[in-house]
Amino acid sequence: MQKYKDLLKIAKNKRFFLRSTNISLNLFLNMGILYIVPTPVGNMEDMTLRAIRILKEADLVLAEDTRTSSVLLKHFDIHNHLVAHHKFNEHGTTAGVIDRLKAGQTIALISDAGTPGISDPGFYLAREAAREGITVQTLPGATACIPAIVSSGLPCDRFCFEGFLPQKKGRQSHLESLKNETRTMIFYESPYRVVKTLQQFAEVFGEERQVSCCREISKLHEESVRGSLAEVIAHFQETEPKGEFVVVLAGRDPKEVKDELKEAQKLERKKAKFRE
Prior knowledge:
Structural class: alpha/beta
Radius of gyration: 23 Å
Distance between the termini: 71 Å
Order of helices and strands: HHEHEHEHEHEHEHEHEEHEH
Strand order of the largest sheet: 3-2-4-1-5
Number of strands: 10
Low-confidence stretches: 14-24
């Protein structure tokens, strides 16, 4: 018994998770499992059979908004206890959740829509559970960003997820830091700010940069508006934006970045020669 406690202590100190030993530490110590469960972003049919089973079998379900999640559970005839766990209380509730997991309970975490941790609460609890040697399992399932980039027509072999941009402090500097990003970029935005955001993109990345604005993913009125930033801005100035948006923005042409770097190096050599 002491041998496995010592192993667990080493794992915590070095901040890595012992995935396997001759005897599973989690089973030996009777710890529970934290399941991170994706929920539909629009169409209820996107809920997986495994997600339904986990939510039924869990000892406790943590929800970003218990009112929203109670509708989901009722739809799938899931009768389980919901406890609020969101960005405003997660630092206060996580310790109690960890204690429950250590005591052997199975706990499921859900957000209002999509996969917890992706622009939703989830990271902090997952990190703290992993640090304590608790098994964290994330179910594959619904998320808005992947359907948006795949259907955008823009390169999706390499991309970076930016989520929601800062609303005020640091917004402009963050956009400037992405100016030479060659990968396709994914942003989340509300219908009330999407035109302003696209206008800022045009200022930083240029009006001809290609973009796809996907709204109401997996819902009845799902739509993707594609074109240059100038064209898409014009569209939404004439047509009122509705629904939550995923904005997929093309990265910069790698050849342009390479050519600029060569020119900068050439100029630097000239300056160095002049100083000599």
